[in-house]
Amino acid sequence: xxxxxxxxxxxxxxxxxxxxxxxxxxxxxxxxxxxxxxxxxxxxxxxxxxxxxxxxxxxxxxxxxxxxxxxxxxxxxxxxxxxxxxxxxxxxxxxxxxxxxxxxxxxxxxxxxxxxxxxxxxxxxxxxxxxxxxxxxxxxxxxxxxxxxxxxxxxxxxxxxxxxxxxxxxxxxxxxxxxxxxxxxxxxxxxxxxxxxxxxxxxxxxxxxxxxxxxxxxxxxxxxxxxxxxxxxxxxxxxxxxxxxxxxxxxxxxxxxxxxxxxxxxxxxxxxxxxxxxxxxxxxxxxxxxxxxxxxxxxxxxxxxxxxxxxxxxxxxxxxxxxxxxxxxxxxxxxxxxxxxxxxxxxxxxxxxxxxxxxxxxxxxxxxxxxx
Length: 372
Hints:
By secondary structure, the chain is α/β, with parallel strands linked by helices. It has 17 helices and 12 strands. It comes from Klenkia soli. Keywords: Isomerase.
């Protein structure tokens, strides 16, 4: 019999990264939306972009709540959903509140939990995502690590070696599939009033940048001083913070609404530089071969930094980081550098492990050497 696999997703990164897994699982996949992202521009647009019908959303009152209430609401709701219609396995991705609640609900009911993108660590517990990663890591049964470094984090924490599998990251295949061709990219850039290589693309949404008006003002000012037009599609949280914080927007910074994944990739592929606090963008630039300033205190994706694609900086260091990334010859070098996040076959490996977990027959993982 075909097993039933609940695939929990609540945010646009989860939609993008889990779509290849849903496709690879075929009829076994039963996607479920939590409603963590409730804005249609952050959900329906992205489901359409990956060719997936919006899945059932059995929970109510999730979006817009604070973190504690959101996790508690989803944990209670998902527990009831899984108890009423028990799946053979549950897949969660990354480090969102939805993934945390989905993993706990399944674990407490004795349902195998498959964690996609397991083992990321920033070692910064001030980040809500870091706590979510630690909780999911404690209850997951199958850990699909994108890189050997992620696998080593899990093994050092005492995760059984036979539960850790290096699969690569589904962002590689998701980016390749969603990236428009050259003609479409040129049309998107023209529609936004920019030309290839003549602009910066930025995204800002993390609380560390949006919840402090002084920090947000400094970041907007730094973007305005880069000497190029800056496209800044705004997350709803960021738009609200700009207004409520009275943050002046420099003339060079062009604010816009959220864009779908294909449009974002078309703009990213043509940008001279990206500036972002997004985790997913740190991965996508390695597929696109683009330089990125990461505006954060810490990162759980050091592979992007180690490979030379990204530099970590605060608002005051954006200009210096940009000059370093755009030094003569380096952008051309990045365009030739392979992504450290895998070969584009992560989804098929994850699907195989998930189906095995549903049948309670996960194969032992290959040993991963741990540096000492």
